[in-house]
Automatic annotation (TrEMBL):
<dbReference type="Pfam" id="PF00005">
    <property type="entry name" value="ABC_tran"/>
</dbReference>
<dbReference type="GO" id="GO:0005524">
    <property type="term" value="F:ATP binding"/>
</dbReference>
<protein>
    <submittedName>
        <fullName>Heme ABC exporter ATP-binding protein CcmA</fullName>
    </submittedName>
</protein>
<dbReference type="InterPro" id="IPR003593">
    <property type="entry name" value="AAA+_ATPase"/>
</dbReference>
<keyword id="KW-1278">Translocase</keyword>
<keyword id="KW-0067">ATP-binding</keyword>
<dbReference type="InterPro" id="IPR005895">
    <property type="entry name" value="ABC_transptr_haem_export_CcmA"/>
</dbReference>
<dbReference type="InterPro" id="IPR027417">
    <property type="entry name" value="P-loop_NTPase"/>
</dbReference>
<feature type="domain" description="ABC transporter">
    <location>
        <begin position="4"/>
        <end position="186"/>
    </location>
</feature>
<keyword id="KW-0472">Membrane</keyword>
<keyword id="KW-0547">Nucleotide-binding</keyword>
<keyword id="KW-0201">Cytochrome c-type biogenesis</keyword>
<keyword id="KW-0813">Transport</keyword>
<dbReference type="InterPro" id="IPR003439">
    <property type="entry name" value="ABC_transporter-like_ATP-bd"/>
</dbReference>
Amino acid sequence: MNRLALDRIACMRGGRILFEGLSLDLNEGAGALVTGPNGTGKSSLLRIAAGLLTPAAGSVVRDGDAALMAEAAGLDPERPLREALGWWARIDGRRDAIEAAMADVGIADLADIPVRLLSTGQRRRAQIARTIAGGAPIWLLDEPANGLDAASVGLLEQLIARHRAGGGIVIVATHQPLGLDGAVEVTL
Ligand SMILES: Nc1ncnc2c1ncn2[C@@H]1O[C@H](COP(=O)(O)OP(=O)(O)OP(=O)(O)O)[C@@H](O)[C@H]1O
């Protein structure tokens, strides 16, 4: 059973406590929406949830693989989109998932275009496709709506809802309003 639980987490950055006493218990289908001004620790919280940053206090229980989608796209700019996504899918053992993931975010027709030629929003959609194709049950999305047009934001909301309906868990850090039904709201 997938689960992500943070228990009384404190986050220290550069010798300063950004937040403390933060608890979240997300079971299958759950979502959390993290908001707050610049620099309050939203990205740091996602990194703690991913296991990439050690909290100054508290504990993290993660049952299920986590995918962190952050600013750095991690897609080879010189490769055509399909191959750039394929590189990750091979590592994840999920080569078969690429075509459907590209179709999910409406970029199937860009499969042969080098990543460096994609627009900001297309690149963001490619990142979402990478997250979908990876198959991890726990999604940690850092500003996923940045650069997306209104229609793509709606699509993102639907894809997150589908992921949760299938038993997935999501934490989204965002400055933009995003519709996540029944999500726990965390303000930093
Ligand atoms: N590696 C680091 N070493 C020291 N301080 C850091 C490090 N990474 C981030 N910080 C500091 O931690 C604070 C929180 O950063 P973080 O990126 O988590 O904030 P955020 O809430 O996601 O901000 P934004 O809304 O601008 O994306 C910032 O003051 C930042 O300068």
